[in-house]
Amino acid sequence: MILLQDMDLSELTDFITANFQTKPYVAKQIFGWLVKNVDFDGMTNLPKSLREQLKERCVAVSARIVRTVTSALDGTQKFLFEFHDGNVVEGVLMKYKYGNTLCVSTQVGCRMGCKFCASTLNGLVRNLSAGEILGQVLAVNATGGEERFVTNVVLMGSGEPLDNFDNVVKFLRLVSASEGINISLRNISLSTCGIAPSIRKLADAELPVNLTLSLHNPDNEQRKQIMPVTNAYSVTEAVEACRYFFEKTGRRIIIEYTLIDGQNDSYAHALKLASLLRGMSAHVNVIALNPVKETGLKGTSERNLKLFLQYLDKLGVSATRRRTMGRDIEGACGQLRRRYLEGNDGN
Ligand code: SAH
Questions:
Q1: Which atom of ligand 1 is nearest to the CA of 295?
Q2: What is the model's pTM?
Q3: Distances (CA, A) of 218 to 2, 213, 237
Q4: Which of 69, 117, 127, 335 can bridge 78 by disulfide, Cβ–Cβ 3.0-4.6 Å?
């Protein structure tokens, strides 16, 4: 099947005019529906015969919401998206004063093997296409009843965006296209475990997104224990690539630092982190690990988290605690999907 949401307006126009003997304005009409996430049956200004022909070969809506869980505390919503082949991924919508931020997935599963993360427990199933990443945004926009409901996007759901480089870059072009939903790249954050050469490639592609490096430990040997990607690209290589990204784009780097009890939360770690980031335009986001029952790892206590932030402050490192939202519905990354697949999601 051909996913129409994979295409920009000019690709769609070429495809539709070549395959369905229509005029370009028809492609434009279809594109308008795709942006609104409307399926073929709802494309009321197209002849019925054309809709039937399209249905045979194409998919209009690439991601469907099959579960929604809403936090009673702050309205944060967790979604389960299903694709045409039955695979599912999670997304989270966080509502802030300045807008609505949607966290989307870039792969079904993940092959990076981080020891604390639920998304990687069963490895990588497959990459998502550009249209399937975009489709998550379009589906949530449709729940809000407006094309611009989602104002910010973070690529922090399941998957490693830079392990699906071409599709993610295509997604960035589609989501920021002026004829589409036109979300500025400045409102998009891409989070990576540190695939250094791809960070450099992204910098060269001149896509000024916000880059987040999931660092979690400044010590190379210790980081290897929790993040196997460190065996391929060292802490230094990843951070140097981030410096390059900053030079190219002028965008400040965000360092994600998840505190794991007794593993990365000492003064020595803060000291090493400070020296690693010296002279770099970076901000550290600190968060306590969300326990995932399969991993056996524990988050740092409230007291030690505050201490760690104080260490960073004294060392002159710009750092804040990342606000946790949707505490009552959380289930750390990937857990709603796991429960759904195990048939224990209560529905
Ligand atoms: N692969 C990308 C993006 C997906 S993970 C990356 O590594 O950045 C999004 C963020 O959640 C990453 O910073 C990841 O390290 C973090 N994370 C994963 N599992 C977690 C858990 N159990 N508790 C807290 N943060 C977690």
A1: 22
A2: 0.95
A3: 44, 12, 12
A4: 69
